[in-house]
Amino acid sequence: MNKINEKDKDNLRGLITKTIDGMELHMPKGTRDLIPTFEPSLIDEIHSFIKKKISWIEDIYEKEDIIFFIVFLVKKKLLGSQYEFMRDKMAQLFEENASKIDEEEKKLKDEEGDDYELEITGIVNFDVVKRTDRSKNKLHYRDIANDIINELEDPTRCYALVQLPKVELQESIQVTDAISLEKNLEDFVMRPMPGDEDIQFPIENNRTYLLIEQVGCFMRFFKSNRSLVSKNIITKFKTFLGLSIINDIFNVPSGPSVKIDNDQKRDFSIGIFISPSSVISHGGIFKWLFNKHKNDIDFIQQVSSKLDLFYYDEISISEIYGSLLRSLYTPDYSTYNPFHLIVGKRKRPLHQFKRPEKNLELLNEKFEKTRKILNSTNDYAQRIKSASLWYLEGYAAENETFKFINYTIALESLLGARNEEGISLTENLSSRCGFWLGESLKEKEEIRKLFRKEIYETRSRIVHEGRTILKKQDSETLEKLESMTKNIINQAIMTS
User: Which of 159, 194, 329, 487 has the most CB atoms lying inside 10 A of its own CB?
Assistant: First the structure.
């Protein structure tokens, strides 16, 4: 846990309380929702302070996240039970004054054209406005500031669940400290968040789920998946999926082109859960809420043998990824012919082969390399993760030109960058592809020519000529590119 020194805490606390002190409550026209708004310059000051003094948090939270923390806590802690009463009174005020505003605006517009300003006490630009009672809320301001500081110092952990309907496991697998494959959810206690009625996310026993732990508090306000926490969850999910497909941990029956059956065309989502035990140990955004329900949570923790998870929200993912997830399955490794266990094109000596006695044995072996890549933060591992993510984007894409571009980006992210001698990127990539895949000098040269003459020329036609449909010859080149990309990334994984 990163510590914030007391002086910086005091300064940040002062900035947050000052921001809340100048807050106005707005009710936009056509809504019945109160939205706290703050002075932009103060928000910028908070953000600048955090960037300078708490720089490590920028991998977890962005400026918008901090704003929404303040909004959330103001609505829940400062307004609390008064929220609905204030909302209804402000809605009534709006309805009473709306017709008056329309008349005033029309009159001013007729007299002064478009260059006018309308100022009516209580309503601005068709928003109902209410200033907070500053004399009563000082202690609450400080309380909110402390919650945000606690969150920045030791962020909440949230958990993402993704169902893998056709993946069958003999037992759960811990891939990394933050990623696991759960054979079923029978050992988990799942509940709606306090104040919510039910769990919207589909929970089924005897189904495999991918469980991702993410440092950072997921907020419901970000419905468009814009928060950095949601972006990090999606990146972890796609990187793991890409590595697993490249390393043949999971297979897809239809190959690189994923078909979507009509009966499968429904939304697919990632469930977001909050663990009370994690909230109590970390963070400050939800701690006050779970403390209000401490007796119920203590009971739940006693009956849970794994995690106590409270459903909070969902992240929607595209239909094509939903179809891909429904298609994934784990091969029966025990039936594999040992001669088929190869790394790219390089066949290992026969004495190294051992037929696994059960699927789990080889599955765990395969995850060893994936685990090493996911846990590493060095530059080479980061390149492999980036290449795997771009490979997956190409693999899942329906349009052939999108596939082509994403596969070339995958290769560039793994092998690219100009060297000191100023050799072109194309020449650099073609030489490195030849080195990785060719087993003889002749084969290496053939691969160099394939990359330079076919792959990059096709890429140039797509990018520079705006081609959206591949010709037959280019489609054949795409198949070679997909195979080449997968083999190179796979070898990078195996030799890391």
Answer: 159
Interhelix angle 228-246/472-494, nearest 10 degrees? 90
User: How many residues make up the chain in this entry?
Assistant: 496
Helix (H) or strand (E) holding 220: none
Q: What is the mean pLDDT of residues 347-369?
A: 60
* Terminal CA-CA length for the chain: 29
Rounded mean pLDDT of the chain?
A: 78
Return the amino acid letter for 190. M
What does the pLDDT average to over 243-248?
92
Q: Which residue in 410, 390, 398 sits closest to 470, CA to CA? A: 398
Q: What is the pLDDT of residues 112-136, one digit of tens each?
A: 555 444 343 344 444 545 555 544 5
- Half-sphere exposure (Cβ direction) of 368: Cα atoms closer than 13 Å: 9
Q: What Cα–Cα distance (Å) separates residue 98 from each residue in 103, 148, 223?
A: 9, 37, 30
Angstrom CA distances, 323 to 138, 264, 470, stand at: 52, 7, 24
246, two tokens? 């490249």
Residue 25's beta-bridge partner residues?
36, 130
Token digits for 270?
């990632």
Q: Which long-range contacts (CB under 8 A, 24 or more apart) does 94-102 make?
A: 94/27, 94/29, 94/123, 94/128, 97/122, 97/123, 98/29, 98/126, 101/126
Identify the burial level of 351 via C-beta atoms within 10 angstroms of its C-beta, where 0-12 means exposed, 13-18 middle and 19 or more buried: exposed
With beta carbons less than 8 A apart as the criterion, state whether 235 and 225 touch.
Answer: no
State the Cα–Cα distance between residues 90 and 155, nearest whole angstrom.
35
Cα maximum dimension of the chain? 93
Map residue 76 onto helix, strand or coil. helix
| C-alpha to C-alpha distance for 113 and 124, rounded to whole angstroms | 19
Strand partners, 268: 317
Structure tokens at 423: 């050799």
How do residues 189-218 score in pLDDT, each as one tens digit? 788 887 777 777 888 888 899 999 999 988
Task: Give the list of residues 6+ apart from residue 363 with CB closer than 8 angstroms, or none.
Answer: 169, 173, 249, 330, 333
* Global confidence as pTM: 0.80
Tokens of 4: 């914030």
Q: Where are the alpha helices (DSSP H) in 113-171?
A: 138-153
Q: Which residue has the tokens 């590493």?
A: 376
Provide the residue ranges of all domains of the chain, joining segments of one domain with +.
Answer: 6-151, 155-327, 376-494
Tokens representing 469 are 């449909």
Q: Distance between CA atoms of 109 and 100, rounded to whole angstroms?
A: 14
Token pair recorded at residue 480: 């070679």
| Bridge partners (DSSP) listed for residue 192 | 311
